[in-house]
Design goal:
homodimer, Alpha-Beta Plaits, five-stranded antiparallel sheet
Amino acid sequence: MTSPAHRVGDMAWNAWGDPARPAALSDSALALVRQALGARPHPLPSATESDVRLPEPALGDDAAARLTAAVGAEHVRTDAATRLRHTGGKSLDDLLRRRGGDAANAPDAVVLPRDHDEVLAVLAACAEHRVAVVPFGGGTSVVGGVEPLRGEFGGAITLDLRRLDRLEAVDTDSMTATLQAGLRTPEADGLLAAHGVTLGHRPQSYEYATIGGYAATRSRGQASTGYGGFDDMVLGLTAATVRGTLRLGRSPASAAGPDLRHLLIGSEGTLGVITSVTCQVRPIPDEAHQEAWAFPDWTTGVTALRRLAQSPVRPHTVRLSDETETFVNAAVSGGRAPSGCLAVMGFEGTADEVAHARRTTRALLERHEGTLVDSSAADDWRRSRTQGPYLRDALLAEGVLAETLETAATWADLLPLYSAVADGVRGALSGDGAEVIVLCHVSHVYRTGASLYFTVVTAAEEDPRAQWAQAKRAAGDAIAASGGTITHHHAVGTDHLPWMTEEVGELGVELLRAAKRVLDPSGILNPGKLIPS
Amino acid sequence: MTSPAHRVGDMAWNAWGDPARPAALSDSALALVRQALGARPHPLPSATESDVRLPEPALGDDAAARLTAAVGAEHVRTDAATRLRHTGGKSLDDLLRRRGGDAANAPDAVVLPRDHDEVLAVLAACAEHRVAVVPFGGGTSVVGGVEPLRGEFGGAITLDLRRLDRLEAVDTDSMTATLQAGLRTPEADGLLAAHGVTLGHRPQSYEYATIGGYAATRSRGQASTGYGGFDDMVLGLTAATVRGTLRLGRSPASAAGPDLRHLLIGSEGTLGVITSVTCQVRPIPDEAHQEAWAFPDWTTGVTALRRLAQSPVRPHTVRLSDETETFVNAAVSGGRAPSGCLAVMGFEGTADEVAHARRTTRALLERHEGTLVDSSAADDWRRSRTQGPYLRDALLAEGVLAETLETAATWADLLPLYSAVADGVRGALSGDGAEVIVLCHVSHVYRTGASLYFTVVTAAEEDPRAQWAQAKRAAGDAIAASGGTITHHHAVGTDHLPWMTEEVGELGVELLRAAKRVLDPSGILNPGKLIPS
């Protein structure tokens, strides 16, 4: 078992990512946004850390004593700085609340177990003392998944898994690795690199998100066409529950009944705490190549991507921006805006594999009106592929709201879904004549369909939280009405709860509740998330 | 909605497959088996259909009336011939019992609904009148999955889904098709062929097995390296349950909580009756090519397959026989037995795709001590790939027991698992000096591991059912002790029940029970299968 030599630091309490990183918005880009949005935005509050008032910690003495016995006094943190940094995730609504000095839902304590058995002990203590438990990995949730809601309970702790940081095993014959839940991706990949392997899992949250969080939220990385989604990578997992330990997954495939791994994957901390995951790993690729493609318009580009997704040889990364996003990306990076739509194709593997995949991809895309263009757009994407959330903070500082939302559907449903969501958001936000910028790209492709990733930008109004909530509601309703899934890779948390019954049906919700009754009979695990009450 | 022009007929009541097909064992092959097994086998009974005594149908009048109201009188069958053909599946134990005239577990009636709503009505009637319901597709189960066990109930019906035989929808943009559960594969592929597409799902049971059965048992086809397992093909499904209709799966991928499709896939009729499945389909390949490869020995061959499975370009079908199976296959087909092990590689696609995959496969296998040999072994395999069960019947007629069992594990665990199972079976069967032939092949490969498929042949003794049960117990215990899964693609039924708790843990079993309580509160659905009581 090895641990990383260096750990990734905490994110800023009131913004995404590294507090020391400078704002990422050029003057020209800012000027462009201002021009596009027209009206002068409403300034947003910007509380300093010392302005924030946290509620008094409400853990009873008995519960605190049990937690201290479980993990040691230094690993039960009640200081304001730690509690503040576990008050929520990084959705626009989280950021607006933090910037306004609101930390009303701060946990009563942050508890840091060091291994599976300590997690079991914490869960037992909290079940006995009726304290809600919110599992916390990287804290990157953008759907309310890590906000401590108390539900029916008097207190709530955040269970921060950062000390579960070991690479437990590597098997380079079977190409598997067992990784503890609290490893952030750069740490995991760093440990794996010593064995010549990598996860290949690179979502936008790569720098902060954790192995356990990926499994708990059914994450998808930007190279998922090559590496699969995180659910595809999970061979087995271990979860600590209130009822004891659950170990699922013995072999690469099985017909031994329903695949129960898929009950824990995506369970968002409501059924148990995933403490380690045995993942498929891949050789570190010899080469990685990105290239940019132009299509005359969105519809043509989507058709080309469909054909590519249905061919046997595909790039590892496949993305296509609509006309608006293509224009804005070029403007933000200071380049000249092309007409039509740009796509990025990313290839990984040995030199031969990359050469073959590039050749077949090129032949296919050229048959479908694609043109290979200079690689600057692909280079921009590669350099900035974890930067989106920093841009959002830079815009917030200027009174501009920016947020993303995503869905997926079959190819046949994709273009109507695209229009319905974009129209819904525009309708909700521009009721009083405000300008709204809606960008979209296809971010992940499958043989049978694709995901759509929207970015919405508008000037803040007087009540920006209500303003965004209205847009989100319109988007979710449009998705549900158009046959899309309410979330392709952001998970459910609190924000997508209103559409869960529509997504899985009343009986589906009952199945989730029944699983929860088995594993978490007192209901302490992440109350208020995922499962409609 | 279209139905097949011609339907596949019933299987023989006392043997696998087409009753009109002649016995499939050459005199030379039979002589070889006799020579290898030494002792004269114990003759097995061979009852004629008129010898078989079925129990009197035990359905109450009220239940019968409700069923008649639900599906019409002509679709509630109580004649002996129909009941006999629904008394069980096609395991060795099933065949031994039928040959002995034993049909004690015949259903009280065979009910044939024509659509989803009629299935709902049948389930409601049976729940009210406390009648067990055994969903029945092709009747190909080799693990006891379709045997009507009454459990705590006074009566049992078999729900034969053959009239759910429509292709409901095809979407050649999204490459999906919605197929009703009762379609056998040749019927489904026939309907799909009109649209230029195919499932690509070709297990040994291809001719008789059904779409619903594939989903309910988590089936794997022989070309699964190219097409995926059936679970990978399911985009969505509709199930009729005692509590109503469950529809799961909206998009190619989703992060909307646990993937509940995987609770119904593999549920073996214990939670609900899958009535239709929206599957991924593929273009009918322009070319299909099989080739044979020789390896100096099993270990070398397994290593080569591992490297092939972990490479980005792979054949659609990958199989490797151990030395014994290689020898026996050659003998059965009348060829000269090569030394070492033979493998079959199958390629499908456009001419370019097949050429490229053959080229890269050849380069890789040659680097790992493989030799491309004449294609006769591959041709034999292709011609005989659905013939195994017919051979078993031919051997039974000679007093020779033959049965298969299968498992899967990671590559690192595979060779120890292979030895443990073979030794366990040999030890169990040859305690009194009897000869035992144990054949094995790798039948499906994955990046992280592979499946092992064993065929066991021995002379029947006085109590052949007990004789095989002992071997099966030894194999199952060896699998559980060696890190394998108790079943890779045969499912659980009754035969693998003893190892289910080991497979998924006590909490896993509780999760299955909880799902059953939600969807089948009275417990009428396929009692005695899959879920340990």
